[in-house]
Structure formats: C-alpha cells, structure tokens
Hints:
The protein contains one helix and ten strands; from the N terminus they run E-E-E-E-E-E-E-E-H-E-E.
Amino acid sequence: xxxxxxxxxxxxxxxxxxxxxxxxxxxxxxxxxxxxxxxxxxxxxxxxxxxxxxxxxxxxxxxxxxxxxxxxxxxxxxxxxxxxxxxxxxxxxxxxxxxxxxxxxxxxxxx
Length: 111
C-alpha cells in the first residue's frame, strides 16, 4: 500500500514483462482526510515518452476504487509492452462532464 496525496508525484519501477498486480494506493486530501471517489466514472493508467505527458504511448488497466483506496492491475503484454527505458505515467480518473483528475504521476522505469 502506498499513501499519497491527491495529484502527488511518485516514481515507479517495473521489470520488463512483469504485470502490475494489486498495487494499492490510499489517496488523501492535503488536509489528511480521505479522498472521496464518489462520482468517478472511469480510471486509466497511461504511459508517455516525456514528462510533459502529451503523446500517449499506451493506456488501459483494470483500476478500481473503494473508499479512498485505489487498486491498480495492469497487464504488461496487453497494456504496457514498452522496451527497457525511462518513461512517464499517470493514473487518473474521469468524472461526469468528462473531466480528468490526476491521482498520481511520475517517472516509470522499465528494467
């Protein structure tokens, strides 16, 4: 379990061909209260070539929330499938009106 504040940077590492399984994130507001995901209509993890996170290389995943806990499962071969190297990622959710909110972002290193 990783404790983060909404919109925080958290760098991640993964081994080539390894899935992300049951990566749990407890999300808090800046005042240390639990973040409420009521109204979230979808979650996605996306991978980018640069920190600006403009050009999406890959995206997807089975991501869900219960209370303030987000559970991330991403299949390497189906979603990530990136060569060894450094990338950027974000995990975000969408609310009604199609507004995106970044939960977590950072450097994503494939070893």
